[in-house]
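Posting here for the record, re: uridine-5'-diphosphate-xylopyranose.
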Amino acid sequence: MAVIADRCPGIQVTVVDLNAERIAAWNDPDLAKLPVYEPGLDAVVVRCRGRNLHFSTAVEAAIADADMVFLSVNTPTKTKGLGAGQASDLRWIEASARTVAANAQGHTIVVEKSTLPVRTAEAVQAILGASSPQAGSNGAVPTFSVLSNPEFLAEGTAITDLENPDRVLIGGEDQEAIDALAGIYGHWVAPERILRTNLWSSELSKLTANAFLAQRISSINSIAAFCEATGADVREVAKAIGTDSRIGSKFLQAGPGFGGSCFQKDILNLVYLCRHYGLEEVAAYWEQVVALNTWQQHRIARLVVTKLFGTVTGKRLAVLGFAFKADTNDTRESPAIRICRDLLEEGAQLVIVDPKVGAVQIAKDLAQPSIDQDPLVQGSDDCGGWKMAGSAVEAATGADAVLLLTEWAEFASLDWEGIAAVMRQPAWLFDARARADASAARSAGLRVWRVGEG
Ligand code: UDX
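Prediction output follows.
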């Protein structure tokens, strides 16, 4: 929405949320307090805030004023009830559709921006259509058009992805509404990049795009394990296959598995829908993409234990990176979570460094407080613990191994001589992203494991 405001000075954009604390943070003059860390976002907010970008808790008034409403609420995986663990929880979509139905005036275009299961628009349309026809202030009964406009941006590159999208997808039936939304993007996106489809294709394209991207990562990670077993190098294999223009070179980086708020959730949702439509083989096919991803994370934790003489109980391990990828403070489904939990279970003492993720978030993700906050676990050999450090050297001091789990740029140029000097020998570097300078680490005397290197 900030980018729309930036590119369309003639359009007033109001972002509303029930959460007053979040809205206050978006309005805070101190840009460090913006709720989302995203390179370039602060500059866009500074340019537009107060001009044509507003943040408010006045949800109903903003809907009444709007010609177009974007539903951009979260749709997490259900944790209980029908479809638990796979289906999307649509309670917030339904609640916001009802709020729109109750407050809209005149004709309102309702845009599904959240990632939704295919055919959700049907439910949204039904809710909007069933609203008791109340005449608005001008005496007219409100009417609605529903469009699907999924978002393909990736975190960390959100602003550039939005400014130069590969494509914008608009699904719908009402041509006038489609033209109105295409007109907004048309301020900065070339017309041939604005694709128009029916509602169901648009909703399904988002799930499919994420499923294909995640599938590539599971594919390359499966080959990484095979490379380790056979003496091949997954980066050489990736390069060799990626130069085939039919395959392409992107999204072939082996690592600790995919994280983030979308891939797993969307595939599980796809799996759930396939089963719903009786397509068991199709469901099983996509389910395996997630199974392989989970396996890769457990595999990395297991091999750390194996290489450290079969035990990490009471051993200090430095963990570099906790975010699910570089340039974000987001830890949702981060591979670091499962790997760290496995190692804690084995009794390891983890010392974690991440340029953007703080202790409060890590305590939530690992479901246990840091050693600093809970000194009772300190010194107990059976019970794993964790704490944070300010630098890689501090984390590595006295450690038996360094685990690199997020590909932050600063981890590419670490001083391995200095790090090796403060570690307990024999010491290991486990580089799950192949990001560190492995030859420098080896020259400094470390034993090195890199993902996908046989
Ligand atoms: C993804 C999609 O890319 C985006 O289009 C969609 O809108 C939301 O989901 P995001 O989750 O922000 O975006 O990150 P992305 O860059 O796709 O990475 C997802 C995960 O895959 C990360 O954990 C990343 O480290 C991992 N990854 C990515 C790899 O392991 N190897 C790769 O080659 C690429």
